[in-house]
Design brief:
alpha/beta; Rossmann fold; two-stranded antiparallel sheet; globular
Length: 220
Amino acid sequence: MPESFLDWDSGIKKICTKISSLAEQKNPIIIGITGPSCAGKTTISKIVSQKVNGSLLSMDDYYKERQKNEYHKKLQKTPVKNFDSPDSVDIKLFAEHLYLLLNKKTIKKPVYDFTISNRTGFESFSSNNIIITEGLFVFNPEISKFLDLKIFLDAPRNLRLERKIERDVFERNRTKEYALNQFLDNTEPFEKKHIYPFKKHADILIQNIKNSVLTDNNNI
């Protein structure tokens, strides 16, 4: 297990080096990137995927479908769906899809739209020899058994909160109060229970203090 956190640039360099080494030994390989909300998981996954010519599969698309009458109003102050609970994600389907991708099969992955908090359909997805997967719960035992390399990404609390409010207001049609309530009521308590305990299983730890993560529009 790693003894300390790497900075953003050093972390990316080490991930790419590890992937190159693993890819010489096994085909295909799966890389898992996790960490608390708005730490920059999507951003770093896209960067690494481009550098190693990998296929990116986000757990964000595997949030469970809801009935239309559950849709919360734009100005509602209290979140009606807890995106920070592992129960909100179809982990079983995600695991099944990783198994199929390992066997070089094409999957029909769900597509999730956070502006309406629901699935909008499915799309075909096939991978090459390097699969990059990211999300809050990719270190879940049902998922981690498929991972050849585990990365845990963290960031200062205030930066993550700032990022969440900006993203939720401008990209997901939420109010600032909604985003803040969600962070305090759901995000922080569930991170302590479901995210940070899995940090000890990481092969690489990265601390993200780059403000550039604030430009990413999708990361949870």
